[in-house]
Request: fold
Amino acid sequence: MISSLPQGLPASRKLTITIALSLFALILALLFPTTDRVICLAAMLLSSVGDIILMNFRKIGEKMPIPYFYAGAVFFMFSHILYTYAFLTMILKNGYNYLNIGFWMAIVIIVITAVAISILVFKNGKINRQMYLLCFAYVMLIGANCATIFSWSFSMGGTRWLAAAGALSFFISDMIIGIDKLLGITSDRLKKAIWVFYPIGQFFILWRG
Reply:
């Protein structure tokens, strides 16, 4: 029974967290009205919509024309695309080298994680191909996001490494969801962990140190 699965944090607390993050992004965009800040605000707003859908707040997910997990994932995919674009604009604006050590560090992390999870999925023997392809596409997008933010953080130096830490924290929260969906490994503790790594990740990506 789906209703018997552990749900982690209450929906009301999740909603409070995601609204707070969107307000934080809005305040930063108003205080520092640069192109990248505005793009990050749009990315955070898309993330909040994705959050609301994924938590099935007020049964909104049941009104979707497609399963609400897929709908929520689509919003997050576009969010990652916007975050990638925001940090890429800063890299290009400053004339930084995109393919630096930070970039390759992120690529190594993403590839190792993707290969490890794929091996576990195929060893498990029960493969939901549609879910696997969705997760694979998602990993490509969040991988591009991580690589771009890591690249920018390495070029900027100083406390800007916090943005890379945020990207990694965001990735970990998504990895937990992927493990749940692909391997069926789930627990209330893991679901709560998502809402530790996720807001920390979003906060540091937006703040940037």
